[in-house]
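Supplementary Note 2. Why include the ligand at all?

Several targets in our set were suspected to adopt different conformations when bound, so apo predictions alone were not considered sufficient. For every target with a known small-molecule partner we therefore ran a joint prediction. The input for (2S)-2-hydroxypentanedioic acid is given below.
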Amino acid sequence: LKYCHEQRVPVVPQGGNTGMVGGSVPHRGDEVVLSLSRMNKIHSFDPTNAVIQCQSGCILDNLNEYLRPYGYVMPLDLGSSGSCQIGGNVATNAGGIRFLRYGSLRSNILGLKVVLANGDTIDLLNTLRKDNTGYDLKHLFIGSEGTLGVITDVCVATPMLLANSVTALLGLDYYEDAVAALSAARNKLGESIAAIEYWDSASMRISSTTQLGLGDCRFYLLVEVASNMNLESLEDRMMDFLGMYSKGVLATDEGKKKSLWKLRENIPLALKGMNGHTYKYDVSMSPHLFNQATLMVQHHLAAEYPHAQVFQYGHLADGNLHLNIWSPTFDQEIKNLAESTLYEFLRLHRGSISAEHGIGVLKAKHLNVSKSEKAIATMRNLKFLFDPYNILNPNKVLN
Ligand code: S2G
Ligand code: ZN
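The joint prediction is reproduced in token form.
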């Protein structure tokens, strides 16, 4: 980095390269791609403090495998866990399906080691749960997508691996029922909730052909509880919750739980497999608004683009909607119309144009939908402070 800084050579840091917004790929053609894959050593795990220290190139699944015998897990889980690397997860502050249970990855990072654009190393590695000594610099690098520094080592607080889990799938006829079920789940299942995901009938149709005995529902809600309490009591709690609904299935054995999760995990995979183009929007707003936002985009597209199909799915309790549009071929007009509709809606409701996937290069020009001019100007000042020659992942995050 010292050499590239002096020679003004742009550098694209790259981990598992599983990002969704083009944040880890070169775009100009004159960049050096700096792979962290070979920096994949696990330094230590302290079972007393439940903190793991490792290098950025460690693959998420490998870290989970390493922690399992100790009875701990990594504080995030996402579809790409087989190839994404913890350094990239931290650089994008990745979300995933366990955000509801473990909180943001950011809140579980205790320390980092970072190399700056000029080659200086900042050692912020510590395993302290509490450390109130001045500006918390690590938070500048978490989620900065490799534009302020290159993360080489991380210290992560690890939650316990819970002995038992029970998964349920509800079939609902109205979106409002899904939002009401979210509150009911919080009341009935409380601290044992491990995940709440939802999707619409269009998403179910492409994800699975098997009938679940739920009939044709407009919306599906997957609810998972996990705890060290015995399986019977956990099952009773879930049955008590499910008893409120006429269409629901419950899974306690691993195979059945996996098949319910597959219904959710298959949605983005099915979209990728459909011959055509998928426009992906990963947005945040109040859970009350997901269906309204989707119907609005659908309505704006229907007249001129009847072949375009709109899908809504995501992390309901996190207020994170994955609104995806599919069309037989890429059409700039569909993209423009969908984005003007959706981003106007987000502006109106103070939502975010990127809930978990980050900004990368794809969303950089829309940053002002979710950030004020002053905030963006301050981000530019920080960028200039850390990377005056703009060699670190140029054109990403900041247009
Ligand atoms: C999800 C995964 C990536 C995608 O399914 O939760 O974050 O394709 C997404 O949307
Ligand atoms: Zn997601």
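The mean pLDDT is 97. The pocket of zinc ion (ligand 2) is lined by residues 95, 314-315, 322, 356 (CB under 6 Å). Comparable summaries for the other entries are listed in the accompanying table.
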